[in-house]
Amino acid sequence: MKIKHKARQNPRIAALLALTEVLDEHKSLADSTGLSGLRDSRDNALARHLAYGVLRWLTALEWLAAQLFSKPLKQRDRDIRRLVLIGLQQLWHDQTASHAAVNETAECARLLGKPWAVGLVNAILRRFQREQQSLLANLDQHEARFAHPRWLRDEIKRDWPDSWQDIFAANNQQAPLWLRINRQQANEVTLRKQLKLAGFETTDHPDARDALCITPATAVTKIPGFEKGWLSVQDPAAQLARDLLNPVAGERILDACAAPGGKSAHLLETCPEIKLTLLDKRAARVDQIHQNMERLSLAAKTVVGDAETPEDWWDGTRFDKILLDAPCSATGVIRRHPEIKWLRSRDQVDAVVQTQYRLLASLWGLLEPGGVFVYATCSILKRENELQIRGFLEQHEDAELVTINADWGTKLAFGSQIMPGEAQMDGFFYAVLRKSA
């Protein structure tokens, strides 16, 4: 999409560029050049809000747009259709004033070099205003209202027949901003005072002792104590990995898919005397670990290597504990990354399930007899979680399941599942295994 540099500073155009990158180029929003190119912080915030909102409600917005267009636009004009989606998102969910949602969105067609579409966009959005009540009533009768692709709707319904609607609703809500206190560095009394003086309200979490929620959510650079390494961004569900591993001084622990290093950092913040190895197969991701560790004033052994082929990097000394935060569909963090719904496919999940099993099998031999293995995903799909662990136990007689005695999550036959939004947490799965002595 060729757009002049000045036009790219328009927040609606920037949001449109981000949608193009996700839907046409299969990029994540974190990698969007459209969003990163905005100079004004307020425009940047608006563009992100619009892009995230459209991706969060995409199928519902597409359904509404289909009722409003008298005839479909050509493929080359899908940018105009997406402008309409941006306007509909503002009118429907943001309840933005007509001037901003209608006029300014319509005028963006001119910035795209398509002045013929200004009137069209304006007319469609104004028609939505007039017919909104009946259109939304009709939308409530269609599966599009759940704003999930069909394959994912079907799989979630099959896995969670009693709670699938709650899962869809949670996925379509914006997630709160949770932080982790670095108790090796932070003066907690001072930190809380500084946050209050900066205008933030704070909330603790009943299950994650180091978790702190702040409102309103903001960029980390504006959070007191963040640059000093007192805080890190991490959902409470992810922080529970530390308690399941229960690190003890002197133990050899492997974080097998460590980047960006959040769970490893939490281990070191609470028990710096462990002998921790952080593994990731991409050098750039290991560099990211180093940067995060430096900010937090922590240090650990890092290795660039593939967990599936330990013979290439392992020194032969077994570990007392292993954490495998496995590659997964990330269907438990859709509320943070709504583009996941449109970047994943059933075939991709099939492939990642095979990868998970290979990782489990290859890493199991690195564990000391009597050692503990924590398997984690940020997924809610049973074939990545409970069924994965069941299959592994069936193939490994020296593996036994450890019961997770905790107040959080849904207890399953093989592990515990946290649902999206449960106690304000992301969707997460944990299973704890012990190797027979």
Summary keywords:
single chain; 437 residues; alpha/beta; N-utilizing Substance Protein B Homolog, Chain A; Alpha-Beta Plaits; Rossmann fold; 3 domains; 9-stranded mixed sheet; 4-stranded antiparallel sheet
Compact overview of the structure:
The chain has 437 residues and is an alpha/beta fold.
Describe the protein.
- The chain has 437 residues and is α/β, with parallel strands linked by helices.
- The protein folds into 3 domains: 7-145, NusB-like (N-utilizing Substance Protein B Homolog, Chain A, Orthogonal Bundle), CATH 1.10.940; 177-233, Sun protein, domain 3 (Alpha-Beta Plaits), CATH 3.30.70; 236-435, Rossmann fold, CATH 3.40.50.
- Helices cover 43% and strands 16% of the residues.
- It is built from 16 helices and 13 strands.
- The chain has helices at residues 11-23, 33-36, 41-56, 58-68, 78-94, 98-111, 118-139, 150-159, 164-171, 188-197, 236-245, 262-270, 283-295, 340-343, 346-364, 386-395; strands spanning 177-181, 201-204, 211-215, 231-233, 252-255, 275-280, 301-304, 319-325, 367-377, 399-402, 410-412, 415-418, 428-435.
- The strands form 2 sheets. Strands 5, 6, 7, 8, 9, 10, 11, 12 and 13 form a 9-stranded mixed β-sheet that branches. A 4-stranded antiparallel β-sheet has the order 2-3-1-4, covered by helices on one side.
- The longest helix is centred in the N-terminal third of the chain and has 22 residues, at 118-139.
- The model has no long low-confidence stretch (mean pLDDT 96).
